[in-house]
Amino acid sequence: MATSKLQALWNHPAGPKTIHFWAPTFKWGISIANVADFAKPPEKLSYPQQIAVTCTGVIWSRYSTVITPKNWNLFSVNVAMAATGIYQLSRKIQHDYFSEAEAAVAKEQ
């Protein structure tokens, strides 16, 4: 039973013998690194890097549902990339634009 399931995975069109398997697997590393950066102060985050992560996640989440065979690993990793990128961008924007405005208002009072 287990042998037939392993053989089915091995011979699947999106299985480990193809780039369709390995590309999203390595992209999980980017998502995990972005989660690890949640502890990083917002001033050390990069707009270009986070925009690239977010856009890649959003664009490929859509197209991963169109390709044949459906690659749910690719879809999942891109949703994770989009989510972590949006979160990091929101942290950066809030720090750069809203914390300064609040400080200026507090200074005037």
From TrEMBL:
Localization in the cell: Mitochondrion inner membrane
Functional description taken from the UniProt entry: Mediates the uptake of pyruvate into mitochondria.
Chief localisation class: mitochondrion
GO BP, sorted A to Z: pyruvate import into mitochondria
One GO CC term on file: mitochondrial inner membrane
Keyword Cytoplasm in record: no
Protein name: Mitochondrial pyruvate carrier
Protein family per UniProt: Belongs to the mitochondrial pyruvate carrier (MPC) (TC 2.A.105) family.
UniProt keyword Nuclease present: no
Keywords: Membrane, Mitochondrion, Mitochondrion inner membrane, Transmembrane, Transmembrane helix, Transport
Membrane topology value: Multi-pass membrane protein
Source organism of this protein record: Salix dunnii
